[in-house]
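Lab notebook: predicted structure, single chain.

Context: the supervisor wants predicted structures on file for every construct in the current expression panel, including those that have not yet been purified. This is the next one on the list. No modifications to the sequence; it matches the entry in the shared construct table.
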Amino acid sequence: MRPSALSFRVPGTSRRAEILLLVATVIVLFLMGEVVVRLLAADRPRATGYAPVNTNRRAMRPQNSRGYRDLERTVEKPPGTKRIVSLGDSFAWGASVEFEDAYPQRLERSLSRRRRETWQVVNLALPGMNTVDEEGQLRTEGLAYGPDVCLLGFVLNDSEDAEAAETRRVAEWAEEKRRTPGLLDHSALFRLVKTRLWATAENRKRITGYKSMYADDAPGWIASRRALKQMGALSRERGVPFVVVIFPLFGNPLDDRYPFPEIHAKVAQAAAEAGAKVLDLLPVYRGLRWDILVVDGVDDEHPNEIAHRIAASAILHALDDVVPWTHEGPPPDEIALPLPSAHAHDHGHAEASPSPSPSP
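Prediction complete. Output recorded below exactly as produced.
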């Protein structure tokens, strides 16, 4: 009986030893992973873009007496001055970048220098504006400035209607309130894995959300198309060129993996049908690293000063097609600049801008 009992217990003992060895191996690997993640600080968000320069969130300064992030402007246009009225949201406002770095200010300086005449870019942009808001603003305020060009900076969230935006903000607030750290959140390795999985799920949800926002029957997109048509009509009534500049969403790869080219095409078509000169900036930024074009890729995906500089340069040259030269033409050192690509047209087709010239 003794030998058989011994032979009966050995397999069980061996299995227990294997299980204990497996558990010990997992624990050791987990601890090694924990040490590596902590040493590399891989669980902590890394600043990208403009953040290392530390702009100290200078998003609100300066503001003029009308509440816009602009210089003081008289409603009556000064003699000998040409004007652009710039409409848009936080991109055109210049959120989180220095005032002088935002594309409206860069454009004003560049136009005056390049065309050798006085230009003003009256910036009426406000964070949170959508296309419907901007149409009302152009109608009630913008045209009073006597613009020579109406410039609209279009960002892909501009077609989100107010009700949908409020619902989204409430849902995000509620989700944030539900998040309570657990015991495992003290582990750097667990936080790293959890964050990566959460980011992947959020990105998929974001892509789906934007694509649904531009469905043909989406209320916000219907209202946005209508607003673009009205802005085009208002501009035509006064003989003023209407220019629509489409910005990409910078928190995405700006190459073939960019998820929204179809939305850009939809917006470009709607703007062109409204009579606008269309400048799609996606081809301008294509191939560049998105993380060097944002304020802070972890916390703030607004364009940084590099992205604003590129946008200002592209807009500067696109205006050549709609604003006649009062002098002899571009400076001699620009004659060798590349011409717009063959698929750049007005009133019906979006323009893909040439590569930007030296910074304005």
